[in-house]
Design a protein that fits this description.
The chain is an alpha+beta fold. Helix content is 22%, strand content 19%. Helix 3 crosses helix 5 (227-236) and helix 5 packs across helix 6 (238-245).
Length: 246
Amino acid sequence: MQGFSKRIEGRDGRSLQLQFRSKLSLPLFTGGKVEGEQGSAIHIVLLDANTGRIVTSGPESSAKLEIVVLEGDFNHEHDEDWTQEIFESHIVREREGKRPLLTGDLQVVLKEGVGTLGELTFTDNSSWIRSRKFRLGLKVLSGTSEAFRIREAKTDAFIVKDHRGECKFINFLIVFIHFLANLTFLNFVVYKKHYPPALNDEVWRLEKIGKDGSFHKRLNKAGIHTVEDFLRFVARDPHKLRNVRL
């Protein structure tokens, strides 16, 4: 243990560690930008573990760092005293035949102990590894700091999902279900011989829209003639539809 302690100390005996200061905005999807909560930048710092203060001077404070992907179950027992070898053994590489797992600005340089990550994008989901989750990791760029050891940083574990083109009908259906949950005056039920209604059915086939009734006429006046027109209107402006009904 004594030899290990020496490895994590800086030139002046400080115990140095990197830390993510920002939480990630979740969920994450392939092809989407990795950002902090509410779209903010992701900030990182170099800390003196003994004092909790940012290291603002010395060569360590301007170290070059590398962003990597880690297995989600790395350090799951919250044992913070890992070695460099253990950290690097949990780095996740891309699957055979796939693009690099993480693309974008994979390096960052500290300035007075503080840095900000650039644009990062996942190209593959996390479903194929054991834990089905990733972490982002941060380590000193190989070959740039042989004289001192800085302990690496990691984020909380997270899932990366595939980003697929949204099916227009499914999107309409999801919006419509949400609409029904909030506007209970409608029910997506029509005459049995037409259930479920087709998108090109006339709008009066929806329940509680009487054929040639006042609501039906107001819908037609608003340009809503078919079930598809109705769904488009719901997706675009459900509150305006309430006004049409009143």
